């Protein structure tokens, strides 16, 4: 398999081979380039300065590791989507913070990485005992249950990201189910993506919905509000989605990648200076295979590719 | 040689930033994480070698500094400002300082590869000033080593470079037409040539004057001892001290005499010819729909919002009200701070909140100063503050109405709105209830006393609540005791300074 990447590389976080010249300042990638090859490449997790990816050779790391990556259990949980770290430093995690045991454990929230390490949780959410995916945005979290129900919680100042009515009975800081994402026309939600002030939900029928927004800042997608609205990209069905600090990447069922949003670091993989609406990303030269997933770091983007010759 | 000094100041900053970052464990930026600290350090390091300005590496440094600014700025929104860790504000400030140095190096190289002069056209000046003002306004110029002190020094030197480069303009305070480019929002304002304002005052036009129904007593300033006694022995022991106006407390202020703030040219001369950036509230009142804040230059504030009559050739554009409100302008502009004096009356021990000790704040070392500068018609809705306040009217007139804390029940305090605590603000619109203004279209989600069939009942009930009121004229100082609800309305172009203390 192959991993392609574009965008922020200020910490050489796109350089898995360690070939960069340490005496010069690394530059960003302005188009998708091949960064890693391995028999197995899972969807990477990219933080601001570091990229982690599970391969047949274990977890490969590029860039400057974040402080929280010193905790092996947190690293595993983040890669496995059972823990997530918000922009304000809060961590939500499912299961025992030190092990990979999940049975009977509720989702807990920690004020910081050190509190996670010490097992000092700030809140325990007994309503959330089974989680298939946990994601974080700038000031809160969203969780997906195995039955396709979406729960959100976080800073009440950014109510649009919660996508639900906040009340005394259903406060912002505690997980609340998002009614508007139930009974969708194309089946239940199978995947969440979030970052910045944008959240996305992908249904089993390959429809993509987005919601969120920040009252003081212009969003980069049209029609984003406190209510989920369908993301329409030329009538394409959506196979995968990812969100960065102020950009997003989508893989269509037909195998094409579209990106939208800020491109200051080249994270869209297209040649435009300004913020861009959905644009089809040109395929990297030499790519011979099928794109199977997309991922976004805060300021960069990734695609994993199943090479053709491995299949034939 | 201000120019050389300014470049040296930047080199020193780069040197110190690198040293501090490289000793990560003791760095005050530690909380930003090793990645960002190393990125900042690397940019400082590149900058130290950049004297022979290599344009291409300068571009990459600039891009990385912009990255750091945008990353740290995003943290400002993640947290309530009071919870925002100071390291994020320092990171923003240090990145701004380095950015200022890159801009300066570019300008110096463009003018003269030997860097003995700096080419300061209006675009360069505006970008330089803007960079530091954003650090002052958004990040509070945090950082013990550089911070506000470094920025103040840099702006002083920049001013010296600027005035010496333009001797013909230094004296007459003119803003050239090109200054228009500095508009922070990239608007396209019309020329500012008419802002020469030779020795004129702001317009004293007063479109509407509310009647004063229950005047606050006026008297010459009390001595510190007499004021302390006034606060300690109130007429009504439950209520505590009541509002009072001092008529001559600030007669000696330079702002009222030798450095007149009513003179637009003077204010421009203290704001880099209007280049300085200030936060302005746009909209009638902070509880109105569509209200917002933006950063504009002081020149734009004067010309487009405060007093359009200053540029009579310009067709008056239909504009919303712009109000420089509750901004620590005098810390941002130390030159204007020199024009006022903190009244000795602030060095007293005022009583606690008369009804709600929960409102009392930890004791402040120094009074907190805020500036209030706006056109006729600005409104600060009925609210109360957790400090005692001396509100000094420097220019123009303001109407103020006050309700005592004993009537808090009848003030219909708001609650939490969009996660922001608004409990100190009343949902009553004094101007609308008095018939001075049309009621503003309120947010449909908020309970609206005017649209629930009880409009008349609210009006009647409110009418019966006793209040005191006044019109403040230049030189007046209003004492607003802690917890008193107050509604403030600008009647003409108005410039006030408030002193909060406890």
TrEMBL record, chain A:
GO MF annotations in UniProt: guanyl-nucleotide exchange factor activity
Pfam family, one: RCC1
Cellular component annotations (GO), alphabetically ordered: cytoplasm
Coiled-coil stretches: none
RCC repeat segments: 148-205, 206-254, 255-307
Gene3D superfamilies: Regulator of chromosome condensation 1/beta-lactamase-inhibitor protein II
Protein name listed in UniProt: RCC1/BLIP-II
Native source organism of the sequence: Apiospora kogelbergensis
From TrEMBL, chain B:
SMART domains in the record: JmjC (SM00558)
Chain intervals for the UniProt region annotation (Disordered): 345-364, 413-432
Domain of life (superkingdom): Eukaryota
InterPro entries xref list: Cupin_8 (IPR041667), JmjC_dom (IPR003347)
Domain JmjC intervals: 338-502
PANTHER family: HYPOXIA-INDUCIBLE FACTOR 1 ALPHA INHIBITOR-RELATED (PTHR12461), TRNA WYBUTOSINE-SYNTHESIZING PROTEIN 4 (PTHR12461:SF101)
Protein name per UniProt: JmjC domain-containing protein
């Amino acid at each position: 398999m192959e991993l392609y990447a574009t965008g922020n590389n200020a910490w050489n976080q796109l350089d898995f081979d360690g070939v960069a010249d340490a005496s010069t300042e690394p530059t960003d990638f302005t188009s998708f380039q091949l960064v890693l090859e391995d028999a197995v490449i899972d969807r990477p997790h990219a933080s601001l300065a570091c990229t982690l990816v599970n391969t047949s050779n274990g977890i490969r790391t590029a860039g400057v590791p974040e402080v929280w990556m010193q905790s092996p259990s947190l690293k595993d949980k983040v890669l496995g989507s059972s823990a997530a770290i918000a922009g304000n430093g809060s961590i939500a995690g499912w299961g025992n913070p030190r092990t990979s045991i999940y049975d009977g454990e509720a989702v807990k929230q920690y004020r910081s990485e050190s509190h996670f390490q010490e097992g000092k949780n700030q809140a325990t959410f007994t309503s959330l005992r089974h989680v298939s995916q946990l994601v974080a945005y700038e000031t809160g979290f969203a969780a997906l249950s195995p039955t396709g129900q979406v729960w959100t919680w976080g800073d009440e100042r950014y109510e649009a990201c919660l996508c639900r009515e906040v009340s005394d009975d259903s406060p912002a800081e505690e997980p609340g189910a998002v009614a508007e994402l139930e009974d969708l026309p194309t089946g239940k939600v199978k995947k969440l993506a979030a970052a910045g002030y944008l959240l996305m939900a992908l249904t089993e029928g390959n429809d993509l919905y987005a919601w969120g927004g920040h009252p003081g800042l212009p969003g980069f997608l049209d029609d984003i509000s406190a209510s989920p609205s369908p993301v329409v990209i030329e009538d394409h069905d959506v196979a995968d989605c990812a969100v960065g600090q102020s950009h997003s990447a989508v893989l269509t069922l037909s195998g094409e990648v579209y990106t939208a949003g800020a491109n200051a670091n080249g994270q869209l993989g297209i040649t435009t200076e300004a913020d861009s609406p959905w644009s089809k990303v040109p395929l990297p030269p030499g790519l011979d295979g099928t794109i199977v997933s997309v991922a976004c770091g805060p300021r960069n983007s990734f695609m994993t590719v199943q090479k053709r010759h491995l299949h034939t | 040689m201000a120019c050389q000094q300014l470049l040296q100041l930047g080199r020193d900053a780069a040197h110190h930033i690198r040293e501090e970052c490289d000793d990560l464990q003791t760095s005050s930026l530690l909380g930003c994480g090793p990645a960002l600290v190393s990125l900042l350090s690397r940019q400082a390091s590149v900058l130290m070698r950049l004297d022979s300005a290599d344009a291409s590496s300068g571009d990459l440094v600039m891009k990385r500094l912009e990255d750091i600014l945008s990353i740290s700025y995003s943290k400002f929104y993640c947290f309530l400002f009071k919870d925002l860790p100071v390291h994020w504000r320092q990171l923003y400030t240090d990145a701004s300082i380095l950015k200022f140095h890159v801009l300066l190096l570019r300008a110096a190289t463009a003018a003269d590869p030997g860097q003995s002069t700096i080419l300061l056209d209006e675009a360069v000046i505006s970008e330089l000033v803007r960079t530091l003002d954003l650090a002052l306004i958004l990040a509070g110029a945090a950082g013990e080593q550089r911070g506000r002190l470094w920025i103040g020094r840099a702006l002083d030197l920049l001013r010296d470079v600027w005035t010496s480069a333009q001797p013909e303009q230094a004296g007459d305070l003119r803003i050239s037409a090109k200054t228009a480019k500095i508009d922070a929002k990239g608007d396209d304002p019309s020329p500012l040539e008419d802002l020469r304002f030779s020795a004129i005052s702001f317009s004293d036009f007063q479109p509407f004057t509310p009647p004063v129904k229950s005047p606050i007593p006026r008297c010459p300033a009390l001595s510190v001892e007499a004021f302390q006694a006034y606060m300690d022995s109130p007429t009504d022991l439950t209520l505590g001290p009541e509002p009072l106006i001092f008529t001559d407390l600030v007669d000696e202020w330079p702002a009222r005499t030798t450095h007149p703030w009513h003179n637009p040219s003077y204010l421009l001369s203290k704001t880099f010819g209007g280049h300085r950036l200030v936060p302005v509230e746009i909209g009638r009142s902070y509880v109105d729909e569509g209200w917002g804040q933006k950063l504009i230059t002081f020149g734009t504030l004067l010309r487009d919002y405060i007093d359009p009559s200053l540029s009579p050739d310009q067709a008056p554009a239909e504009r919303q009200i712009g109000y420089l409100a509750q901004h620590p302008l005098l810390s941002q502009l130390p030159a204007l701070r020199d024009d006022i004096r903190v009244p000795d009356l602030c060095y007293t021990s005022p009583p606690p909140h008369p009804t709600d000790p929960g409102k009392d704040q930890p004791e402040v070392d120094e009074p907190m100063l805020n500036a209030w500068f706006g056109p006729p018609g600005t409104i600060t809705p009925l609210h109360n503050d957790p400090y005692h306040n001396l509100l000094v009217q420097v220019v123009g007139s303001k109407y103020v109405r006050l309700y005592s804390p004993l009537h808090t029940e009848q003030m219909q305090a708001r609650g939490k709105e969009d996660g922001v605590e608004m409990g100190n603000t009343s949902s009553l619109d004094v101007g609308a209830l008095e018939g001075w203004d049309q009621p503003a279209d309120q947010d449909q989600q908020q309970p609206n006393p005017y649209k629930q069939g009880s409009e008349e009942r609210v009006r009647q009930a409110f009418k019966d609540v006793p209040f005191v009121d006044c019109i403040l004229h230049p030189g007046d100082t209003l004492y607003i005791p802690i917890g008193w609800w107050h509604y403030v309305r600008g009647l003409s172009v108005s410039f006030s300074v408030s002193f909060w203390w406890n």
